[in-house]
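Lesson 9: reading folded outputs for more than one chain in a single document. The general rule is that every protein is listed as its sequence immediately followed by its structure tokens, and records are never interleaved. Here is the first one.
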Amino acid sequence: MNQLPLLYFYTNMPTPYQLDFFDALKEHFNLHVVYFTAREQDRQWNLSTNANGYSVTVLKNNLLAKLIQQKVPSVHYSNSIKQVALESKAEMVIVNGTYWSPNVVLAMKYSKQAGAKVYFWGEPVFPVFNTIKKRAKTFLLGPVKKYTNGLLAIGRRAAEGYMAYDYQQPIINVPYNINHHLFDDSHIDQIKLRALKTLYAPNNEIVLLSSGSLIERKGMDTLIKAVQLLPANIPVKLLIIGEGAEKQALLQLIGPDPRIVLLGFREKDEVPYYFRIADMFVFASRYDGWALVVNEAMSAGNAIICSKSVGAAYDLLRDGENALLCDADDVEGFSKKIQLLLKDDILRTTIRENALTESGFISSEAMALKIVMLYGENR
């Protein structure tokens, strides 16, 4: 029996989408995941670092890193990162996280020194136009250019951003991904599903869903205002999953409107049920490097209305085919497109079916196979 190649994967902490990716990767690699911490202070996920089918190391931040994390939670530095990387004997290494964070830089540097093929899995870099800021960003991106054999770009915008900073190594598009099968009937308790539908749409209202942190960037205020513009006789219910600093302001904006409900935070295993009771997924984010919720909406077969300022929309969504696209902050535009899908059953069904059909193309299984192909090309 052939031994699987050793893949080390460095990342900040356990996240739902990465756990799906790891489960897919372990089928093809002897996978070892190195977490920089068990949990970051601004995250609500309750996820274990224990794994089934692959090994895990959880590093400890030193005192300086813990002080910095009070302002920037995603910055990590462990005194043991050098030893872990040099002693790994990995054939292939993937590093994810804030590109200038010490653990990220050192994981890339020492993995390359140890002879591994090193890849950085990165989101889009924020564009800057000030000359001084651009020089600073170019400097901070230096280790990614120097120590990697290629970039795993989280979407085309990430690829374009790194090329703008003169990244010369191969770039492979490997967006955030999920196990799309978790939204299938085989993984859903039908009794629970019907109970949720009855609870939130007792009069067969059309259920609109959105999901994301309740912060200004996610544009939940735009979505709430768009629903409030709908005629009162249209039977809809908007459900919003998420917590955040803007919660009280959004509650004030909602006021007594019974059509809009803030559900709060939901754990990973609960999320598919809310997507499955939804008829439409509406996302008005002002900016998202990717937005995994789009993958979830496609996997659930939702009719999607999405902001054009979302990385996943740029890669995956085609206006009028598998989604309707709208400018961020266009309250009237979102309201009109919601009404269009409410009125046009054929268009709504077409969008839902197209999105569902394409969901497997960007699944964790599909992305793991990209890594397998990349490994084969570099043997």
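And here is the second record, again sequence then tokens.
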Amino acid sequence: MVWERRRWLNSDMRLKATPECRGLYFDLINIAYDNSPIGTLPTDLDVLAKLVFVEPSHFRALCALEYGPLHKWEPCLCDGGEIRLMHATVLRSLVEAISRREDNRAKMDAANISKRLQRLRSTVAGLHIEMSKNDAAIRWIDEWLLDKGCAYRSTSWVEKAMAAWSAHMMDLTGRRLQRGQ
């Protein structure tokens, strides 16, 4: 959960709400992160009162305040036609967090692929220095090993992949020659 501390410290909710409403508001934000869809709350005030351990009648009275626990929570239509409560700031922070997580995952995946290709290039260099300089060959060999489900890239597996690359290149060369005749 990303908490925008400065935004919170200067918000009307923090400056104008009662301490009890501020605490319940914060609890509801945390609860929304564990609800489905993520970042939403049920619309039933009795259910919300139970979630924050407050008597339903007292919770309703607090919600009637201008800066109550549901300040700026609005109804939204979710998949399946269900109406739930959402808060624009919570939704924005969730979207940003998901984007950052996806960006981070993509960076990690790219770094892992780069390391895997680098290790493969080193292994191939020990067997055939010229082939190790061929980016297309290294990528093709990597794909071949992935297709074969090779989890541990032993020298014997890399040799098999190199032989498959050579056969692939011979096949391509043969096709080109046939088209040229």
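What the second record shows: Residues 5-94 form one domain.
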